[in-house]
Amino acid sequence: MSNTAAMIASAALAVGVNASGTLSADAQPAKSVVLVHGGFVDGSGWDGVYQILKKDGYDVIIVQNPTTSLADDVAVTRRAIAAAPGKVILVGHSYGGVVVSEAGTDPKVTAVVYIAAFAPDAGESVSSLIANPPPGAPVPPILPPVDGFLMLDKEKFAASFAADVRPSLASFMADSQVPWGVAALEGKVTAPAWKAKPSWYLVAKDDKMIPPPAQRQMASRAHARTVEVPGSHAVFVSDPAAVANLIKQAAADVGKK
Predict the structure, then answer these.
(1) pTM > 0.90: yes or no
(2) Where are the chain's structural domains?
(3) CA 224, 230, 231, 235 torsion: positive or negative?
(4) Residue 108's CB: how many other CB atoms inside 10 A?
């Protein structure tokens, strides 16, 4: 190799370009996205976000949490991360934020995105975060546990969870609820991913499940790059474009590093 060629190769490697002229693996933008749902719902709610991301060339995996315990949900999510090609943008909605906080320390995860989600610190759980709601905060219509699982009152589901979702779909979501294990709510995060990975947060300004002030506080604590949009707790269903845009922004930003 001539001295000139050697210098060009050295410079290319310095900026993450290999000898063939393509970006090296370390410099490739993250093109894999793993979506993690929260309590009372399943992964089908991500359909709108999924369709946008797939159209834009992302590889997308949707986790189907059993929502029986945090450990079980983290295990399922880690398997999805392992199956994803290359770097991963890990996204969690609601309780899914607890799952991604615990699972997001995986070396393949390059960023964590919270969508109207819990972003707990070490030793915190959903139970501890909702233990002392501020005066005047809306109270989610959670029914008493049955056999260790929780459900939302179907008659109040739309108003509290999905006020901006079309009525027929909100009704379907209410009738197709996934029982949420009390043990999952009590699962404590050990080492939150947001302390080690860059994070993004979407605040749903009309949320009646996790009060927007609480969302802002958690986002600020996590030093997350934050956007706010009008929307209910089901903003990932009602406004998939806003959610997908934040995910794509996270992917683009970490790809620059």
Answers:
(1) no
(2) 30-255
(3) negative
(4) 17
